[in-house]
Amino acid sequence: MGEVVMYLYQLNISNFRKYGIKTMEEGKVTPGLSLNLNPKLNLIVGENDGGKTAIIDAVKLVLSTQSNDFIKPEVEDFYLEPGKEEKFRSSEFKIECIFKGLSDTEAKNFLEWLSFEEAAGETTFYLKLTFAAKREGKNIYYDIKAGSQEEGSQMDGKARELLRTTYLKPLRDSERELGSRRNSRLSQILYNHDAFSNEENHQLIKIIQDANNSISNYFKGLDGHGNGIADVEGKKLLEELNSYLNKFSREGNLLKTNFNIADTKLKSILEKLSLLLQNNKAGLGSQNLLFIATELLLLKRENFSGLKLALIEEIEAHLHPQSQSLLIEYLESVCNESSIQMILTTHSPNLASKVNVENLIMCKSSGVFNMGSTYTKLRKGDYLFLQRFLDVTKSNLFFANGIIMVEGDAENILIPTLSQILGISLSKYGISVINVGSTAFLRYSNIFLRENEAENMGIPVACVTDLDVKPSISGSTYKIGDRDNVTYEEAKSYHKQRKEELYTKDEVKCFVSDSWTLEYCIAAGEFQNEFFIAIKFAEYIENSEKYGLTEEKKAAGIEFVEGELSKWKQEQRTNEAIAYAIYNGYMLDKKISKAIVAQCFAEILSSLDPAETKERIKKDENLSYLVNAIKFAAKLGEEV
Predict the structure, then answer these.
(1) Residue 140 within any structural domain of the chain
(2) Is 220 in the same domain as 342?
(3) Domain range spanning residue 320?
(4) Which of 19, 225, 588, 619 is the most buried (most CB within 10 A)?
(5) Same domain for 89 and 208?
(6) What is the CA angle 565-469-407, rounded to 5?
(7) Looking at the domain assignment, is residue 45 inside a domain?
(8) Residues 6 or more apart from 476 whose CB is under 8 A from it?
(9) Are residues 155 and 231 both part of a single domain?
(10) Are residues 264 and 281 in the same domain?
(11) Is 187 among the domain residues?
């Protein structure tokens, strides 16, 4: 593991872009964003307009970039509260970057600007840079100072150079950046690399000098030994060109030229170089990988005592999922094994699933949240669990405005259909349905619970679960702990309260079925007939991969269900007994797949009259827990 050296520890933003200021109860004003960063890898995830780019741009303003990107504050950078008129836009903003972990070698470069703090009886030093901007109309004035005191002091150019960051823009033109041109990014990287520190006598200079001599001789009609050559066309061309220049020249200022590859200054030579993949048909994704690999040349310099920080926006640009996975795994290993810090942004659930949750930072409308172990309610075992089982599908939760966690395939299939019929589009409300398995609710829901309970992520999380109390049709009693002869209603009440207390906290709320399981609830409710038909359809599908569900089988299934229901009702069975016979006596006994049943049932619901079906769903008390979970995740009131 690489030792922790100088890294960006904290970023404080006041009145910049979407981040204003906070006024505490005691009247104290604090930054709108105060973000602690990981010393190694930081992957910032979140939806569009979540504030990811504002964080990157704030760091760039303070530190500048290795590629000398043109950066200056604009009027739109000053905070404007949503819904307010332009005249209420802030007239100043401030960005603070605090660096920690400085080694002695690094610290000596910033001696006059260092600050000191006491912690656990040990004195450590840190470096704080402050970017302050003010505006008067459209005129903007700003300065950058260093030091812990409010006024600080100006930092000299040499020290500032050591703090420049590597930056890769989101829509990067890798081919252009690595091509030959004046002040190309490739030439900057090579010129600052240790391999080209011998600027006066580098081997490349001799190579270019020899090449220039050979080219010059050709245009003089000579070979390498000063003898004439048969091809004199080059000589004629140069003589003709110089004759024109002679006619254009004034007395005392004779113009003359000659051909060469480059002048013999090392920087000019490097500007003539280009870096190409050997595959001439390489696409944008491969060029992007080449560009990132080239930037690593500078970041991994061993003898550099400055800041090794890379900012990469939309790291997934032009890359297919497998390449994304390979890249992020490698970059994570680079950070862990070296002294490099990276701050990356992404919209990709694929990348979010590959990175350790502790390295994630979530951007939401309510703020920015580091997912490290000191900030969440996740336990050590939870992080290890998520590292094993947090896949691409589940990683959607990092980008959602609302979440419905379910414990099985049936709920995962049915909830989107119910939502659509109710007129609550999951996509429109930014709701993700996450199938976490039977007992993993806390593993995932604790992601959204903060150690500092004053922080609120503003993401409602609905945990949908079965009651798991099997009804006793014969009237037998239940046991709860050391209590015997407990009635079915008492057992239901006890287990429902226990689950709600276990899973409900802050923005996380548990929604428990009123009876045994989802399937039993549907069988006992308004859609008893349709659900029994779905079970029969699922039985046909599961047992006939070749032919599927034909119209003849559909008719036979409907006829069978109507016959069974008619017979049970003639026997005067209770509704609960009929539901038990449908779910336990037919579906479970025949081991019919819950997922296929849910799929068939969803298709049947979608084929019914939407308005009538919506009213039936709202009327069905057995489905109320699902309806309430959907409304909770969408932040809706009681009426839908």
Answers:
(1) yes
(2) no
(3) 7-178+277-355
(4) 19
(5) no
(6) 95
(7) yes
(8) none
(9) no
(10) no
(11) no
Return the structure tokens found at 105.
């070698």
Half-sphere exposure of 434 (CA within 13 A, CB side): 32
Find the distance separating the first CA and the last CA of the chain, reported in whole Å: 54
Among residues 245, 271, 297, the one where a domain terminates is: 271
**Reduced to 3 states, what is the DSSP secondary structure of residue 218?**
helix
Does residue 229 sit in the same domain as residue 334? no
Whole-number average pLDDT of the chain: 88
- Among 296, 340, 328, 299, which residue's Cα sits nearest to residue 2? 340
Per-residue pLDDT tens digits for 321-337: 888 888 888 888 888 88
Residue 617 lies in a domain: no
| Nearest of 496, 498, 396, 385 to residue 446 by alpha carbon | 385
Q: Are residues 29 and 170 in the same domain?
A: yes
Number of Cβ within 10 Å of residue 507's Cβ equals: 19
Whole-angstrom CA distances from 49 to 19, 165, 265 are 12, 24, 46
Distances, alpha carbon 451 to alpha carbons 320, 329, 473, 503, in Å: 36, 28, 46, 16
Give φ, ψ of 21 to 5 degrees. -135, 160
Residues of the chain with pLDDT under 50: 1, 640
Count the domains in the chain.
3
For 560-618, the pLDDT digits (tens) are: 999 999 999 999 999 999 999 999 999 999 999 999 999 999 999 999 999 999 999 99
